Amino acid sequence: MSQPSRERLMTGIRVTGPLHIGHYWGTMKNWAQFQNDYECFFGVMDWHGMTSAYKISSQILGWSEEMVAEFLAWGLDPEKSTIFIQSQVPEHLELFMVFANLTPMGWLERVPTWKDAEADAKQSDTHNLGRFAYPVLQAADIAIYQGKKVPVGADQVSHLELSREIIRRFNHLYKAKLTEPTAILTETPAIPGLDGRKMSKSYSNFVLLTEETEKALRKKVNAMVTDPQRVHRTDPGDPLKCSVYGYHKLYSQGDLTWVEEGCRSAGIGCGDCKAKLSENIDKISAGPRALKQELLADRKKLRDMIRFGNEKARNEARKTLELIRSSMKW
């Protein structure tokens, strides 16, 4: 007997530069598991990145190719899943224009992320139409593949609801049956930056997913802030007040007791703690780092793999556009 078709999942990462470890633990780790249970479409979302990086557009292609290399190095399988670059599947923009014409302005004006970031957007000269209309493009990104499942954190459910409303409005206007996506709630661990604040590229306090060398990784780990009460080597500390401990919970499951007891008793120093963390991160990152470097060293092969994924994506996107035009009698 033939196996029933799997539900289709669509998600992506906005292109803003090299990936940091938060992208893996909050997103890609889940993706590697999803591809065994769903028909997955994983996007490198460079049009979304362009909304804030339009002044440095020459860097976006390089970042996009590096992101694909990261996806492959960290366990995404192009035979199991469809990995594509958003701008190289033009059907995204065609459906965006359809959705843009039927989305009321008021819906977008009420988007919390737009309202909250509007002042910063004006200051950084990114107060633009592309950024304002990103929820419409997001809806098109999902609908173009008839995505049924979209993995999101609990704080992003409202964003997905707007995509559902746009698709629902299209279905109502044209008596169509585009798939309304539903959320897969995922856990996103809070990973502090090197300075204890939220990890962010704007703060330059991040650890890259694959630092180029072990030395570069060790330098960043050594710069992490620790428990401020632990001034001297002999002062006992509290792991819960230390940024380094948050990383140990991800990378050092087998050493947590050593870290906790050693910190509280001053049996180990902060240097010992950081050295162990560097060692454990490098153990996990060494294989993917080597594979990523191999992929980036042979750009022709990497670009062939990207074209393969783009074509798989376009084949499905064209089917959806045929359905949309038929529904619209256009």
Q: N- to C-terminal separation?
A: 40 Å
- CATH-scheme architecture of the largest domain: 3-Layer(aba) Sandwich
The chain-level mean pLDDT equals: 93
Specify the biggest β-sheet. Answer: 3 strands, parallel
Principal-axis shape equals: elongated
Give the % helix. 40-55%
Overall CATH class of the largest domain: Alpha Beta
Q: Tell me the β content.
A: 5-15%
SSE-based structural type: mainly alpha
How do the SSEs run, as a string of H and E?
EHEHHEHHHHHEHEHHHHH
Whole-number tally of structural domains: 2
Q: Any idea of the CATH topology of the largest domain?
A: Rossmann fold
User: Which stretches are poorly predicted, pLDDT < 50 over at least 5 residues?
Assistant: none
Q: What does this 3D model show about the protein?
A:
The chain has 330 residues and is mostly helical. It has helices at 21-34, 46-53, 60-73, 91-100, 105-109, 112-123, 129-132, 134-143, 157-174, 214-222, 243-251, 256-265, 270-297, 299-328, and strands at 8-14, 39-45, 82-85, 149-152, 182-185. The chain folds into 2 domains: 8-191 and 299-328, Rossmann fold (3-Layer(aba) Sandwich), CATH 3.40.50; 210-291, Tyrosyl-Transfer RNA Synthetase (Orthogonal Bundle). The protein is built from 14 helices and 5 strands. The chain has a 3-stranded parallel β-sheet with strand order 1-2-3. The protein has a two-stranded parallel sheet with strand order 4-5. Helix 9 links the parallel strand 4 (149-152) and strand 5. Helix 3 (60-73) crosses helix 13 and helix 4 (91-100) packs across helix 8. It is elongated, with a radius of gyration of 22 Å. The mean pLDDT is 93.
